Amino acid sequence: MTSVPVAVTTGGGGSRWCPTPEQVMLLEGMYRGGLKTPTATQIQQITSRLSIYGKIQGKNVFYWFQNHKARDRQKLRKKLMALYHQHRLYPTTHHHPFLPLHPVGGIEDVSKCKPVMNNWKVDDLPSDQPCKLMCDCPLMTMMMMDHHGTTPYCTRVPPKTLQLFPLTTTDLKQDDAHHSTTSSKP
Amino acid sequence: MTSVPVAVTTGGGGSRWCPTPEQVMLLEGMYRGGLKTPTATQIQQITSRLSIYGKIQGKNVFYWFQNHKARDRQKLRKKLMALYHQHRLYPTTHHHPFLPLHPVGGIEDVSKCKPVMNNWKVDDLPSDQPCKLMCDCPLMTMMMMDHHGTTPYCTRVPPKTLQLFPLTTTDLKQDDAHHSTTSSKP
DNA sequence: GCAAATTAATGATTTATTCAAG
DNA sequence: CTTGAATAAATCATTAATTTGC
User: Fold this and answer.
1) Which of the pair, A37 or A153, is modelled with greater confidence?
2) How far apart are CA B180 and CA B183, in angstroms?
3) Residue A97 distance to chain B (closest CA, Å)
4) Is B170 part of the contact surface with chain A (CB cutoff 8 Å)?
5) Which domain of life is it from (chains A, B) (predicted)?
6) Which residue is nearest to nucleotide D17 (CA to C1')?
7) pLDDT over 90 for what percent of chain A?
8) Measuring CA to CA, which residue among A7, A25, A24 is closest to residue A16?
9) R_g of chain B computed on alpha carbons
10) Which of A92, A131, B48, B156 is in Cβ range 3.0-4.6 Å of A157 for a Cys bridge?
């Protein structure tokens, strides 16, 4: 598809590298494929390969990987920070800053949650107070929330006006404004 | 034709969740709205909301987002794969369309790299990035080798005509080692 | 037209990575 | 170097579409 070789002004001036879409795609692919810190040799090869799509130098590749990895970490760190701060809000344990105090008693089980999940015995979730622990883990914590079987409809959450859509930051903001990882757009 | 959109005949012992059209619509809406990995809190809310359209549990919502996101990526990956094939970049693989490039033993170079860097002359360094950055990186040895012409030191890798990417492990392996594979050193 | 058989979608599990902390 | 938490990839399994022969 006629990828327009968005060329950098290569020759003399030395403006900065402007990767073509193909180059970016390939780089991201390699990164996701597991290549986080390419060796010199690999950088060489990559550079050579990508050069057919446009001007590129080894340092560009090098920096790209550096930056990408760094930003990945940054993103993750942010998430952890948010999580940590939220958890600071309640009693500190002198063990781990967060986590397995008790209520789930099943974090371990989660790993072998396979058979468990189907007939999970949840003695009703704290209906008065949703377990704060769970609140932040998008993970499967909440799988245990609802009981499978008799209760046909999930009506555990009090029917107050909560809006789901993250489009407006009104309500959700309170709970977890931090969720978003800033969306890698598809 | 006229497929009756009934669904949800989950009456007795429905083995798996069967989302109603409304539920699917709403979920897709949220996803498109930017919600990719809802937190437990959000999942709760969503579940509660969607339960008015039919039986649903938190884990269903959780799984739905997991799967949707995963299959989104999958689709995208296929597209990229097509692109690669179009450019005949890389033989088909079942796993990652992008290189499963193995780390290889570039680590050896690292040890060499550090002393080298001390007296490395940076002619091609980005001006906004201090040398410090490079020092962090073990393997940038060759980064400057593609710098036009004046590369003083290691230019043993031919600037073109090298086959890249993990064609077979053979190449890469001996790559670092030594000798004459097309050593064209100007 | 209708079911049995086959294929495509998609819900649910399991396995492998990843980063950071101890 | 190991471990924990969380995730994404890969896989299994079941439901819905569809094809096909009668």
Assistant:
1) A37
2) 5
3) 19
4) no
5) Eukaryota
6) B3
7) 0
8) A7
9) 27
10) B48
